[in-house]
Amino acid sequence: MKNFKIISILFFFNMSLFSNNDLEKVSLQLSWKNQFQFAGYYMAKEKGYYEDAGIDVDINEFQFGMNLSNVLENNTADFAIGRSSLLIDKSNGKDIVALFGAFQNSPLILLVREDSNIRSVKDLKNKKIMITDDAQGTASILAMLSSQKIYTNDIKVQMHSFNLDDLIDGKTDAMGSYISNEPIRLEEKGIKYTIFDPKDYGFNFYSDILFTSSSFIEKNPELTKKFYEATIKGWKYAFDNIGKTSHVIYSEYNTQGKSLVHLVAEGEALKKLAYTQEVKEIGHLDKDNLQKIVDIYKVMGLMDHDIDLDKFIYEHNNHMALNLKLTENELIIYGLISFMIVGMLVFTIVYISIRRKWLHTTVELLQEIDLKTKQLKEQNYLDVLTGAKNRKAYDEKIKEHISLFKRYNNKFSLLMLDIDDFKEVNDSYGHKIGDKVLIDFVKIVKSNIRKNDFLFRIGGEEFVIILSETDLSSSKNVAENIRLHIEKELISMDNNVVTVSMGLSEVQEEDNEDLLFNRADVLLYTAKKNGKNQVSY
């Protein structure tokens, strides 16, 4: 019987190894740092859509200095995410096939403060504008300016610092931004703003285009199709479940340290860009729309000739024939714009090329500053002794969870913990032993909660846990598990066992931060009164 058990264990172990090795490995290169912008890929991985398709996907974050159009040629990625400027790369002979466009409308905008008295694009004349030195990437903004007779010599082009404080402090008048990022950050700071969106002026570009090469598709037709279909499922889930998706990004992919509320707001903004009145399904690439973008690039001098769009668009994309032809008036407008933009671009390229080296140096410096700022911020939210989050962190996090519950009905539970008779530990053995008990307590609790649960020290021996997306029934099991582990593993001196009492409550419709906290506090008192070392709920 014993040998049979051993054989069974080895069999299932080998089957597990076989199953993992059986997955086809591919790599995906993102076009920026981790954020909701790439939610579909994260969720396709986290929900098992890729694994169900027999694929193991390695998702790689953007690194500064990386040339995205070359990652396929250099064999550093099998799939990558790019912009509409992939059309230019295709016209220059690069082997590119666009699988789908995550966003029908580009999130790239110009952002100004409301108190700047800049009410229209025309008011930007003689103003300072921060845009990148990438004429291809900022083509929609340059075209928008030109359509309002604002040329490069009419504005003061500044090297982009990627620092929103420069707009807030008035070091620049307008900043090239993403509608899903900087406006949300201004709202968090209570600063009013105005957006100038190129699509409102007729310059509507696709964004976040998933692409690969025709050579890769020819070698891996089934793999490509499975990856494409699983990715679409991931995006549909992400936009149908913005709250849950934000939780996943917050706990697993949050390299930028964004708040949960920010990620939710980002998801809501991007969802509006992913669908239009004509396009109800995620990812469609339309030939007529792409041709319009090609025409704009040609007018701006960024492309010399047309490309075969049927070879540019992936065969399974099922792109929609919307038959949106250019009207005679539109042709006249684009013709007039061509003369204006060409002159503007010549000046822009000469002006900005001098600053190209400055940009890379500045970005590296900003990265270092951002890292140090992030480290200081993290220290600000940590309890120095135990490493748990502190009361300040709790106040912010509970507001986020209450807000998500009100908007998306994302249930969660609040667990309040108090170490039993902790004063006696301090009095009997001294504060040094008391501190060790607190440190060991936090280690045990952390090892018995998930990454998307949050532990806070709110007082001497008082702690709170926010159990994300967990109802009362499941939370009771978590709480009881913690209680048992504390009773079994936490010892002060002379083999004296340390125990914990807990009050547990699930969030309710009428709750605010105080109501929920007070209810858990009353339940904790009940647990203490009824004999300690127990959970009251």
Instruction: Kindly report the average pLDDT value.
Output: 88
What is the CATH first-level class name of the largest domain? Alpha Beta
**Euclidean distance between termini CA atoms:** 44 Å
- CATH topology of the largest domain, by name, is D-Maltodextrin-Binding Protein, domain 2
CATH architecture classification of the largest domain: 3-Layer(aba) Sandwich
What share of the residues lie within helices? Answer: 40-55%
* Rg (CA only): 28 Å
Beta-strand content: 5-15%
Report strand order across the widest sheet.
2-1-3-10-4
> Spans of 5+ residues with little confidence (pLDDT < 50)?
319-325
Count of DSSP helices? 20
Q: How many individual domains?
A: 3
Task: Specify the structural class.
Answer: alpha/beta
Keyphrases for this structure?
five-stranded mixed β-sheet, 15 strands, 537 residues, elongated, D-Maltodextrin-Binding Protein, domain 2, alpha/beta, 47% helix, 20 helices, Alpha-Beta Plaits
Tell me about this structure.
The chain has 537 residues and is α/β, with parallel strands linked by helices. The protein has three domains: 21-103 and 207-262 and 277-325, 3-Layer(aba) Sandwich (D-Maltodextrin-Binding Protein, domain 2); 108-203 and 356-374, 3-Layer(aba) Sandwich (D-Maltodextrin-Binding Protein, domain 2); 381-536, Alpha-Beta Plaits, CATH 3.30.70.270. Helix content is 47%, strand content 15%. It has helices at 2-21, 39-46, 49-52, 86-91, 139-147, 165-168, 182-188, 214-219, 221-240, 242-252, 260-274, 287-299, 309-312, 328-353, 356-380, 391-408, 422-429, 431-446, 472-489, 513-529; strands at 24-29, 55-60, 79-82, 97-103, 108-113, 128-131, 156-159, 174-178, 193-196, 207-212, 412-419, 454-457, 462-468, 500-506, 535-536. It has a five-stranded mixed beta sheet. Strands 7-6-8-5-9 form a five-stranded mixed beta sheet, sandwiched between helices. A five-stranded mixed beta sheet has the order 12-13-11-14-15, sandwiched between helices. A hairpin with a 4-residue loop joins strand 12 (454-457) and strand 13. Helix 10 (242-252) packs across helix 11 and helix 12 (287-299) packs across helix 14. The longest helix has 26 residues, at 328-353. The chain is elongated and about 85 Å long. The chain starts with a helix and ends with a strand.
